[in-house]
Amino acid sequence: MGNIQQILLCFLFTLCFCFFFFFQLPHVFVNCVECFTLRLLLEKILNKLNHLSSSEDDCSAEITCETFNDFVRLFKQITKAENLKDQTVYIVLDKAEYLRDMEANLLPGFLRLQELTDRNVTVIFLSEIVWEKFRPNTGCFEPFVLYFPDYSIGNLQKILSHDHPPEYSADFYAAYINILLGVFYTVCRDLKELRHLAILNFPKYCEPVVKGEASERDTRKLWRNIEPHLKKAMQTVYLREISSSQWEKLQKDDIDPGQLKGLSACTHVELPYYSKFILIAAYLASYNPARTDKRFFLKHHGKIKKTNFLKKHEKTSNHLLGPKPFPLDRLLAILYSIVDSRVAPTANIFSQITSLVTLQLLTLVGHDDQLDGPKYKCTVSLDFIRAVARILLNSQKQKLRMVKSERR
User: Looking at residue 396, what is its pLDDT?
Assistant: First the structure.
């Protein structure tokens, strides 16, 4: 079981491929994202093995397999071939975390494949998550876990320093990378993201040198010039709310990213009418305690005593504590209270919730197969919700104008 971070996943996949190719070992590589159903996955493995065990003329017919029981039977037949009989067959499953969304017997079956088939077979799982999130509740054989740690700060320093522009010295760019890692290493260790940040902010770091205000060795002055811009960039790590050209424009004009209109992700996502209300309801459910729903969303809630407990805990802003999970029932209750018209809990509403999860505007907390109701978190910012509410307000104003014009 290879449990690795995303920055090493492609490297490990290439390493495994080169290892099997160099030693001429019978192997099968399968991507679990491409084979998203049980039948596609099993047939992909069997057909690739069939191509290994037979000549091109003998393997023209495609193998069909619908159950894991059929897979075991067909696997035994294929591995009886002379070129596979006395060898170890390797099955490499890339993106193995997607196996959790398939049949419950699939993962335990792969872990016991050598016992079930009575063949020399090794199954290798490549994943970005830990084994504890894989382990089925019914129990299974424990695999050998091989953990690949993140790059150390020294490794990142060496890798990123190779990208220095030819017009500047290697020492100058290495000093810049050292400053960049000193700011971002605690919050981001993704090589791709750090490389993107290094390319994006390097022109601002070179600005005093280009203008003749400082030399390449004047690190103190260069640090003072780049420090506020790196702090701004740290607020949007991974988010990609604005493009590289827009970020360069912000640096030239010294504008706060939150003050620039039209650069929010809201402008790039066109949501249906009720999806906007669902997103607002999800934000209210994430950042407001459940005990305040009656006070906020009921017209005749009666008198509510403001106890010392309420006063004490309301002093802390819920935005500083982050979004909290909420059940689906609470989301729908808030939705019905903020929408003027009656909204029936149809499949259309539930499909729009699923679409918001797919767009990563909502996050599903827990696993899909949990017995109780699903719980969600709202992942958008307050500025995003304000922009959505502003769009809804403008549409309501347009409707009122149309009604007034019709009455005239």
Answer: 64
Residue 308 within any structural domain of the chain: no
Can you give the residue range of the structural domain that contains 398? 269-303+314-407
- As a whole number of angstroms, the distance between CA 193 and CA 206 comes to 20
From 148, 177, 208, the end of a domain falls on 148
Dist CA 16 CA 124 (whole Å): 10
Tokens of 264: 């929010």
- Residue 92 main-chain phi, psi, to 5 deg: -105, 120
- Would 309 be classed as within a structural domain? no
Residues 181 and 100 in one domain: no
Q: Is residue 159 part of a domain?
A: yes
Strands (E), 15-145: 27-31, 89-94, 121-127
The angle at the Cα of 158, spanning 154 to 164, to the nearest 5 degrees, equals 140
Report which of residues 191 and 110 the model is more confident about: 110
Q: In what helix (H) or strand (E) does residue 327 lie, and over which residues does it extend?
A: strand 326-327
Helix (H, G, I), strand (E, B) or coil at 378: strand
Residue 134 near residue 127, CB atoms below 8 Å? yes
Q: Would the pLDDT of 310 be above 70? A: no
Question: Using one digit for the tens of pLDDT, what is the confidence trace for 296-309?
Answer: 777 655 555 555 44
Is the pTM here over 0.70, yes or no? no
Q: Are residues 110 and 26 in the same domain?
A: yes
For residue 371, name the pLDDT band (cuts at 50, 70, 90): low
Cβ atoms of 275 and 320 closer than 8 Å: no
Band (274; pLDDT cuts 50, 70, 90):
confident
pLDDT above 50: residue 55: yes
245 and 117, same structural domain? no
Domain boundary among the residues 131, 148, 165 is at 148
Phi, psi of 257 (to 5 degrees): -60, -30
Contact 123, 91 (CB under 8 A): yes
Burial 209-236 (b: 16+ CB within 10 A, else e): beeeebebeeeeebeebbeebbebbeee
Lay out the sheet containing 27-31: strands in order across. 27-31, 89-94, 121-127, 2-4, 146-148
Cα separation, 275 vs 371, whole angstroms: 26
Mean pLDDT of 190-199: 87
Domain count, the chain: 3
